Amino acid sequence: MKLTLFDKNSKQNEYDIEIILVLNKDLEAKNIKDRALLKNLNFKGGDEEAVFLPESQRIYVGCEENSYECIAIAIATAVKKFQTTQFKTACVELLEDESESLKALVEGAILGAYTFKKYKSKKEKEVKQELVLLASKDLKKLSDIFNESVIIAESVNKTRDFVNTTPDDFYPKIMAKEAKKIAKENDLEIEVYGQKYLQKNKMNAMYSVGRASRHESKLIHLSYKPNNPKKKIVLIGKGLTYDSGGLSLKPSDFMVTMKSDKSGGCAVLGMLNAIAKLKLPIEVHGIVGAVENMIGGDAYKPDDVLKARNGKTIEIRNTDAEGRLVLADCLCYAQDTIKDIDYIFDYATLTGASVVGVGEYTTSIMGNNSKLKYKAVSSALQAGEYATSLPFNRFLRKAIKSEIADVCNVANTRYGGAITAGLFLDNFVYDENKEKWLHFDIAGPAFVEKAWGYNPHGASGAGIRMTIELLKAL
Ligand code: BES
Ligand code: ZN
Ligand code: ZN
User: Fold this and answer.
1) What average pLDDT score do residues 443-468 get?
2) How many CA atoms lie within 13 A of 171 on its CB side?
3) What is the overall mean pLDDT for the chain?
4) Which residues take part in binding Mn(2+) 2 (predicted)?
5) FRET partner for 420 with CA separation of 20 to 30 A, picked from 137, 177, 352, 381?
6) Residue 109: which residues within 8 A CB-CB, separation 6 or more?
7) Distance CA 107, CA 68 (A)
8) Residue range 462-471: average pLDDT?
């Protein structure tokens, strides 16, 4: 779907369809011309409620309140209706606060129109459709917001494509190839390291997780370095292109959807794509640990003790807690090779416990710096993503002590699994960076099993919008 921003006063009545957002369920509002018909159709104007009136060629859609979320859901719903027709153009007017509503309309439309058809053998002929957003003033300022929102939403969709691709079509080498494409397109520096590098540089935790796979693990490092950057940021992503659980094999029902265990890494790729295109004035490093967790004679085992890059030893009691092992070495790699870091954030579909604890819509944010955590939560909400902060404490920290190594990869308690995973990672954050680090557990929202809002079934691209917002706020 093509999106354009137009001056409302310069061009009129040239669109096939008019989309009308019905605010606050107010069917008496000025802009509603088909009042009687809507009443007869039992249209109430609730969220995700839309009707297409072919006679007047209008789509009415409910928008329960004038907020980013409701506007984005409303336009996504309307766009989906528009996509069921053969009409070529549709228009929608910006709401009263034009700049606020513009972001929601652009992002909601692009995210809502997303479909993933790669594996459908019948290729439907796509109708080229266009949605025109009509503004009444400040076209110059609005066009900046428009362009920015397009970049962000398209980066989210790029990430969704990566994550939705099956594990046999998207393994570590392919992830590196996609990263190289992003680097080339945006003029970024890139390094890709394989298994030899991991062994030589004592990244034995990450190396061991990928040992039983037929696909070699890849450590991907992208850098965006504008002139005179104001800050230096490191973004790290868990890129498990498949998580079978390893020898602590997942039960069948839990294994399905584990192609999405690369969501953190794919989000980092999407973030770098967006950051470079937005030309943010900060230096950003994107580091992805791309690994496949499989079984086989060469698999790492419960009872192994692995030594991470910083020398800490890890007792393995469950090979399904593999993401934290990959991230441990990636965190060390970042802190060893990048000097004077201002912030270091990691993104991972790390624990089922996060999903149980906060629900499938919400990201759990952890770290040692409360102020930074709350800033991240508020940026997420501002950007249209759900997030909450989870608290560390000294007792849960003790739960990952090991009898025979420095730390254990699973806790000795059934409770607080998202937090104990975060505390495990804290072992690999160096003292000077403790306050600069945040951990984002996106296990809940990264992959959508039942469509919600503007997210169809499949990958959501969680983490990108909140991070762009946070980077702008820092
Ligand atoms: N990738 C999973 C976590 C996950 C679960 C992500 C559900 C998305 C949806 C992770 O590697 C894992 O298996 N974690 C274990 C940890 C446990 C063994 C301590 C889990 O959450 O059960
Ligand atoms: Zn796992
Ligand atoms: Zn995993």
Assistant:
1) 97
2) 12
3) 97
4) 238, 243, 261, 322
5) 381
6) 1, 3, 75, 76, 79, 131
7) 10
8) 98
Average pLDDT over residues 266-294: 98
Mean pLDDT for the stretch of residues 279-301: 98
Atom of ligand 1 nearest to the CA of 351: 21
Three-state DSSP state, 288: strand
Ligand 1: residue of 324, 351, 362, 419 to mutate (most ligand atoms within 8 A of CB) is 351
Where exactly are the structural domains of the chain? Answer: 2-137, 164-473
Q: Phi-psi region for residue 381, left (φ > 0), alpha (ψ -120 to 50) or beta?
A: alpha
- pLDDT higher than threshold 80 for residue 12: no
Ligand 1 site residues (CB inside 6 A) read: 243, 261, 318, 320-323, 349-353, 355, 410, 417, 443
| Section 389-404 average pLDDT | 98
Q: What pLDDT score does 125 carry?
A: 79
Region for 338 from its dihedrals, namely left if φ exceeds 0, alpha if ψ lies in -120 to 50, beta otherwise: beta
Q: How far is the CA of 417 from the centre of ligand 1 (A)?
A: 9
Region for residue 453 given its phi and psi (left: phi exceeds 0; alpha: psi -120 to 50; beta: otherwise)? left
CATH assignment, 164-473? 3.40.630.10
Contact (CB, 8 A) for 355 and 449: no
Q: Is 26 annotated as a binding residue?
A: no
What single letter denotes the amino acid at residue 4?
A: T
The strand order across the sheet containing 283-293 reads 189-193, 218-224, 283-293, 232-243, 343-348, 437-441, 362-367, 386-389
**Which residue's C-alpha comes closest to atom 16 of ligand 1?**
321
Fold of the CATH domain 2-137: Leucine Aminopeptidase, subunit E; domain 1 (3.40.220)
Ligand nearest to the CA of 443: 1
DSSP state, residue 213 = S
DSSP H or E segment with residue 381: helix 370-383
243 marked as binding residue: yes
> What pLDDT, on the 0 to 100 scale, is given for residue 9?
84
413-451 burial by CB neighbour count: b if 16+ within 10 A, else e? eeebbbbbbbbbbbbbbbeebeebbbbbbbbbbbbbeee
Q: What is the pTM of this model?
A: 0.98
Report which ligand 1 atom has the smallest distance to the Cα of 320.
13
Q: Residue 13: which pLDDT band, with cuts at 50, 70 and 90?
A: low
State how far the Cα of 73 lies from the Cα of 105, in Å rounded to an integer. 9
Distance CA 110, CA 104 (A): 10
